[in-house]
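Next comes a concrete protein, fold included:
___
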Amino acid sequence: MFRYCPSCASERIRFEQNRIFRCPGCGFTYYHNTAAATACIVRTNTGLLFLVRNRDPGKGKLDLPGGFIDPGEGAMDGLCREFMEELGLNIKAEELKLFASFPNIYPYKNISYNTCDLFFYLDAPDLTEKDLQLEEAEISGVQLIKPENLDIERIAFESVKKAIKVYLKITN
């Protein structure tokens, strides 16, 4: 990520332990920490809500509502913001139930971001596709899929696949 030290402009900056940028010249240290992200399984009367990704990584594959947490935001507030941005839904934090967390790798423009993905679920029995206002730059469509009809290999990220498997175990 760094070719030159941001502090002294030396080209001797090193990437160590898969997370630390360190300059031996001036002592500058930058920890490339894990980013926090959220996702939510939404259960309706007709199935689980999946988004169809309109961007890489995973363009055309299934994903869950959610995204990265912004600086100054808590996980639940960030997830509520993502629901509004992606689907036009006003979700309240107290409706969300945390059930799992998994590490993930999010490859974006030749950089692999390590993430800690927090998974929530939400029961919205009466929600239909008509209730949604899609953010089309990121989402090309939605699908309501009954758990027994879900092809797990259509899902974009390994952490989401793991979370869905856990969710199906705890809800059956």
